[in-house]
Design a protein that fits this description.
With 213 residues, the protein is of the alpha/beta class. It is built from 8 helices and 7 strands; from the N terminus they run αααββαββαβαααββ. Strands 3-2-1-4-5-7-6 form a 7-stranded mixed sheet, with helices on both faces. Helix 6 packs antiparallel against helix 7.
C-alpha cells in the first residue's frame, strides 16, 4: 500500500482538489475553525504532503507518515515543521507529548485502528483535543448508492485521465465500504477515553472534535 501512495505523491494534492470539486478547502477550513486556540505542539497523523499544516493552530507541528515520498514533499513545502517517518501504530514519542492530534483521511488505511487510538491516547495530554476528518461506511443504502455512483461516474474516470495509478482510487472506494460506520467508530473512540465535543456532517464524511478525558 505504501508503494501505491508513493506512486501518486506528486499528484496527490491536485487530485484531492479535483476529486472533491474543491470541497477539500472547505473541510480544512472547518477543521481550523474547530480549534479554539493555538497550542504548543500538534501531531498530524498520516500527514501526507502536509496539506493540513496551514490549518493546524500550533507553534510546533509534527507530521507523521509511513510514506517516504509524501514526507519528502512535505519537508520541501514546510521545512519549519517536523517530518517523522514512522507508523501510527508505534509512535516514537514520549507519553503526553502533544496538545492536539489531527488525522484526516488516515484511519481507513491503518492496519490496526485500536492500536492507533491507544497510541494517540498515550501521546496526547489529558484534556488534549483530537480532530478527525474521515469518510465512514454509510449506514444506510441511500448513501452507499450515492457513494458508489460518485466514484463510478466521477472519481474513477478522472483518475484514469490524470493519475499515474488509477487503481489507487478504486482502492479508496473499497477502503470506505470496508471501514467502520461512524457510530461504530465513535464507540471505539469512547472506549479509548475520548469524548465527542463537536461534529460537522457531510453525509458519510464527518469532521469530528474530541477531547481526551
Amino acid at each position: 500500500m505504501n508503494d501505491q501512495f508513493y506512486s501518486i505523491a506528486k499528484e496527490y494534492d491536485f487530485l484531492n482538489l479535483l476529486m472533491t470539486a474543491g470541497l477539500i478547502f472547505l473541510w480544512r477550513a472547518q477543521l481550523k475553525n474547530l480549534q479554539n486556540e493555538e497550542v504548543d505542539a500538534a501531531l498530524d497523523l498520516a500527514s501526507g504532503t502536509g496539506s493540513n499544516f496551514p490549518y493546524i493552530k500550533a507553534r510546533r507541528i509534527f507530521g507523521l507518515d509511513v510514506d517516504v515520498g509524501m514526507l519528502i514533499l512535505q519537508n520541501r513545502r514546510f521545512p519549519f515543521c517536523y517530518s517523522i517517518l514512522a507508523s501510527a501504530e508505534k509512535m516514537p514519542f514520549k507519553n503526553n507529548s502533544f496538545d492536539s492530534v489531527v488525522c484526516s483521511f488516515g484511519f481507513r488505511n491503518f492496519g490496526d485502528v485500536e492500536k492507533v487510538l491507544s497510541e494517540i491516547s498515550r501521546t496526547l495530554k489529558t484534556g488534549g483535543k483530537l480532530y478527525i476528518t474521515e469518510i465512514f461506511r454509510p449506514k444506510n443504502f441511500f448513501w452507499e448508492v450515492i457513494l458508489k455512483l460518485l466514484f463510478k461516474l466521477y472519481v474513477i474516470p478522472l483518475s484514469k485521465l490524470f493519475s499515474k495509478n488509477p487503481s489507487m482510487y478504486e482502492y479508496f472506494l473499497s477502503s470506505i465500504l470496508g471501514f467502520l460506520t461512524y457510530q461504530e467508530f465513535l464507540n471505539l473512540l469512547n472506549s479509548h477515553g475520548f469524548k465527542l465535543l463537536k461534529i460537522h456532517h457531510w453525509g458519510p464524511l464527518k469532521i469530528i472534535k474530541l477531547v481526551k478525558a
